[in-house]
Amino acid sequence: MGEIVNDETHEPRSSSMSLAMRWKHENVRVVSVIAAVAVVITLITVLYMYGASKKTLSIRVDGQEHAIETRQDTLRNVLDEHAIAVGAHDAVSKPLDTEITDGDKIVIERALPVNVIVDGQKKTHYTTKKSVSDALVSLQIPVKTADKVYPGQDAAVANNMDIRIVRVSKNVEERKVKVPFQVVKKADPTLLKGKTKTVQKGKEGIVVQKIEKVYEDGKLVYSQLVDKSVQTKQVNQVLAYGTKKEPEVVVLSASSPSVGSGKGGKVGFDYKDMLENVQLTAYTEQEGSPGAKTASGTKVVEGRTIAVDPKLIPLGWWVYIEGVGFRRAEDTGGAVKGKIIDVYYESKGAVRKFGRKKGHTVYVIGPVKPEAN
């Protein structure tokens, strides 16, 4: 058999390896430079990214301001990183999940507990406000203008302080007050002393008062009169009292001295008393009783008989009545008192015609009728 001979068209293996070695040897310096540049670029990138993520913040808490460096991305992580606790009622100037940027300023206000006493209840609230007034507004606790706040609304909020609100209410009530009338006394010279007479009846008045009542937490603390008006005017009672003295009663007798002289027609006479402002009336006896007797025992006679008050004119005495003539006091009557004289007439017609006369003067003469000289 013959020997098989391979015709190899490629270079031998040793020849390929030599080529690679030669290329590596020739380009190793280029590769080294490229690798070094890549490392430098990577390092610069890392350093840049590291430097770029660093932030400086200003955080003010509990009245103190702190400068903080951080690479955290949110405010919550920054606070956790630096162990700054935030209570449920504390106020933070930015939401905790906000992404922070370099130069941010964060303010944390600590909430203080306050005890609010109002409307009969005591409840603890938390507030970050500095004054009592602002705290009540933020807590949405209404305070009316008239309400009282202890301590004052301008007071500073303190830890665990008590804030008391006193509800103040007012109302106006009307009430009617009776005003008693007064008795006014007035002298009356025409009324006998010791006698009284009601000239004007008294009447109570009514005054409407408006009373303002002030309540604090439902309890009355004070009331005051704010207005009043007269509904019914008071009328005083006027009482007249007599100042006139009782006339002195002169007991006349036949021995009483004459006090003057007069003339009735052609007949002159002396009189023992003179009565002025005498009232004259007339009377007659009932029909069917002719010749009736008087109080003095005589029979009534027209033109002679008169009824008198025996205290002023004694029965049986003669008088002279101006405008009437001589008459004799023979009778009395229940209505004949004082300066009243009842003149007798036989007919009712004459009585009606005579009527009532006032202002007459009567002269009391005596038991003997004067005769013409």
Automatic annotation (TrEMBL):
Protein name: Ubiquitin-like domain-containing protein
Domain of life: Bacteria
Transmembrane segments: 30-50
Matching PANTHER family: CELL WALL-BINDING PROTEIN YOCH, RESUSCITATION-PROMOTING FACTOR RPFB
Gene3D superfamilies hit by this protein: Resuscitation-promoting factor rpfb, RlpA-like domain
Keywords, in A-Z order: Membrane, Signal, Transmembrane, Transmembrane helix
SUPFAM superfamilies noted in UniProt: Barwin-like endoglucanases (SSF50685)
Source organism of the structure: Paenibacillus profundus
InterPro entries: 3D_dom, 3D_YorM, DUF348, G5_dom, Resuscitation_pf_RpfB, RlpA-like_sf
G5 domain location: 165-245
